Amino acid sequence: MLSACTAPQPGAELNDPYEASNRASYVRSVALDRIILRPAGKVAAALPMEITGPVSNFADNVGLPGMVANGFLQGDIAGMGTNTMRFLINTTIGIGGLFDPAGAIGLAEESTDFGETLAVWGVPEGAYLVLPVFGPSTERDAVGTFVDLLFDPLQSVGTMAQLDYATGAKIADRAISRGAFMDTIDSILYESADSYAVARLTYLQNRRFELDETPPAGDEIDPFSDELSLEGFE
Amino acid sequence: MTDQTFSRRSVMALGGAGALAALPLPSFALTGSEAEGLVTSAVAEINVVIQSGANVNSMVNSFKGIFERYSDTSYVAAYALGNDGRSASDAQKSAFSDAFGNYLANKYGRRFNEFAGGEIQVQGSKTVNSFIEVNTVAVLRNTSPFQVDFHVSDRPGRPVFFNLIIEGINMLLSERSEIGAMLDARGGNLDALIRDLV
Predict the structure, then answer these.
(1) Interface contact flag, A218 B151, Cβ < 8 Å
(2) Which of B107, B111, B169 has the highest number of chain A CBs within 10 A, making it the mutation to test binding with A?
(3) What are A130's strand-pairing partners?
(4) Cβ neighbours of residue A79 under 8 Å, at least 6 residues apart?
(5) What residues of chain B, 9 to 28, have a C-beta less than 8 Å from chain A?
(6) Which residues does chain B have within 8 Å of residue A230's beta carbon, measured at their own beta carbons?
């Protein structure tokens, strides 16, 4: 399916049978951004790193037990080990996860989720979806998001503070990321001729890249191929 | 890991880019280190612009100049227009190519403040089909490092970028989708699109 070399847009194959309802959901997501997330991002961007840094660290750290569980389900022993060490070091030496001493010694997060676990298990991507609040997703990733929310091992291994502030920190972290990439996200959401199409293409390409799922789309775009006539453009 | 050294040939090719572009020189085989050199050199120029503290319009102008010297502007424009370019006249294609360069410099130039204080670390390169992919990692404040791949070819007879892949997101594919949507919004009128891109 993805190896069709005559495809006009290699790597951009889309499966979007619910486009009409997705577009409606997308419009609501953008409205939510305009009213809440974007203004919160502005506030976050104005805060000093001494405040936003620890909040982001805390939010990342409380996500680690879930990643360890998914690493286990995927048989990814190395990723599991790295994320376990990160959680232990940052929760203790890193004062409950506010700081990231594990990162400083080269233990970078091996980001994963149940959507990836499903991919490893061979579940196909499914159709493109725009979820309320969560935004761009796929049928497979929607199940992943739901399962990760429902079965979070933090509930059994987290400290009291982690359980109390996990959700708040994750929401704050979203505002911080929104603020850090204000211009890029604005250009997708508000300056594009077809913002929905750009968001869809961006999400799917990035997700397939994270999951190592497709041959890099760019490989087939080659200036020496005869597919495109450059006459007149020179 | 990072190859900062330039072969004499790549320095000459870069330095004489303006002159070379006009000459139908036979293309030489592009090497990985030349492609890496191109990335290092372009990133250095972009950093100088970012750190200059100039106003946004003047920065955008500088980025347009860098884009023209370092990238395959004809190919990038032709790809972005795609099949919609088939029925265009040479005058339209040439006008589109120029307007598209302005549009890119504006769109991406205004975002460079997000890259202030960051750096691009060249990790290495590999040959893909008939071009070279230079793998780099962007290390920015506020976010985990992410992968940026530059696609470099010598199609015009000198090393140039023609595509950029950021964490799997392909710039040429995105721009083709965007240009297609902009054309649709103008009922397929290419002249109107060219006017609006300038």
Answers:
(1) yes
(2) B169
(3) A136
(4) A67, A71, A110, A112
(5) none
(6) 74-75, 78
ipTM of the complex: 0.82
First to last CA, chain A: 34
**The one-letter amino acid at B96:** F
Q: Kindly state whether A147 is in contact with chain B, defined as any CB-CB distance less than 8 angstroms.
A: no
When CB atoms are compared, the residue of B83, B168, B181 closest to A193 is B181
Q: Dig out the tokens for A150 from the structure.
A: 């429902």
pTM of the predicted structure, to 2 decimals:
0.84
Q: A216 and chain B: CB distance < 8 Å anywhere?
A: yes
Rounded to a whole number of angstroms, the CA Rg of chain B reads 17
pLDDT digits (tens, 9 = 90+) for B23-74: 444 445 789 999 999 999 998 998 888 888 788 888 889 989 999 999 999 9
Matching residue, tokens 């303006």: B18
Option in B163, B167, B181 nearest A194 (CB): B181
Question: CA dist B25 to A108, B156, B157, Å?
Answer: 47, 8, 6
pLDDT tens digits for chain A (234 residues)?
A: 343 333 334 445 789 999 999 999 999 999 999 999 999 999 999 999 999 999 999 999 999 999 999 999 999 999 999 999 999 999 999 999 999 999 999 899 999 999 999 999 999 999 999 999 999 999 999 999 999 999 999 999 999 999 999 999 999 999 999 998 888 899 899 999 999 999 999 999 999 999 988 765 566 788 888 778 888 887
Residue of B nearest to A184 (CA): B111
